[in-house]
Model the fold of this input.
Amino acid sequence: MATHKAKKRDAGRPAWQEALRREIAAAGKVLVLGIGNPDKADDAAGILAAEGLKKALGGRARIKVLLGYETPENLTGEIRAFAPRLVIMIDAALGAHAPGTVFVVKREDIPDEGVSTHKISLRMLVAYLEETVGCKAVFLGIQASDLELGKPATAAVERAAQGLAASLAAMFRSSSA
Done:
């Protein structure tokens, strides 16, 4: 899960939608990577969004959706083999937003949690993908409010994940994906 510094934005369409719409239009192949633990309340956000997107899109040659759960680094070989120009990572995040808010998390705002024998930090994963795949990585956070093990995602995060999946599906369809 990522933390994020609060940032003001203009009213109207969310900033993440405008930024991502341009990135998707410019990219050839796009890979979406859902991250999180579905057994830990709102930490399921990335997985819920990716599953929703997978269902909404069906099979599209230039788009791949993967579920990375708590160890997305285990999928780096599959990501490299697909050779996307854009990787969209989705995970629960903690920032100064209302629960369920979707926002872009800047690379420098992703905590560098170090490396353990079971995982690398998400910041390191972003850097690794950009350097070894030659892609751009965009990290979307969904503001979490409850991270208790054994609880389902809150209604706000469920709605946000479904809305994000629908928005991404529409963007992919409109970009002739």
